[in-house]
Amino acid sequence: MAQELKFGYTIVYVKDVEQTAQFYQKAFGMKVRRMEQNRKWAELESGQTTIAFTPLEQRETSLTGGVHVPDASEAPSNVIISFSFDDVDAAFKHAVDAGAVPVSTPEDKPWGQRGGYVRDINGVTILVGSYVHEP
């Protein structure tokens, strides 16, 4: 019998969990759902899925071979976090004003979305985009 699949959460390994959670609050307006007292885990309210942060160094990272931290001079990793907003341009500006590094300013995409890219304080690439509207 097949079990129902539910996406649990996305975990982002970061240098400083508390600082990263505060950045996402300031840059994207997200609320912290849970911050462990030892500051080694934070979860943010992000709709039906959860984004979570945990430190770079821990048992799980050694089991999987470590974590590669992206450098601003390198190409982005093969995963991008995407946040959807009604006013993409305002959200993009707000994120940059809060410390996100602009990668490309918002533009209209041929598939019906408006979006631009930033990097967070850990070098993670984020799409600041609109919902895709069917033509």
TrEMBL record:
SUPFAM superfamilies: Glyoxalase/Bleomycin resistance protein/Dihydroxybiphenyl dioxygenase (SSF54593). Residues 6-131 form the VOC domain. This is VOC domain-containing protein. It comes from Riccia sorocarpa. InterPro entries: Glyas_Bleomycin-R_OHBP_Dase, Glyas_Fos-R_dOase_dom, GlyoxalaseI/FosfomycinResist, VOC_core. Pfam families: Glyoxalase. It comes from the Eukaryota.
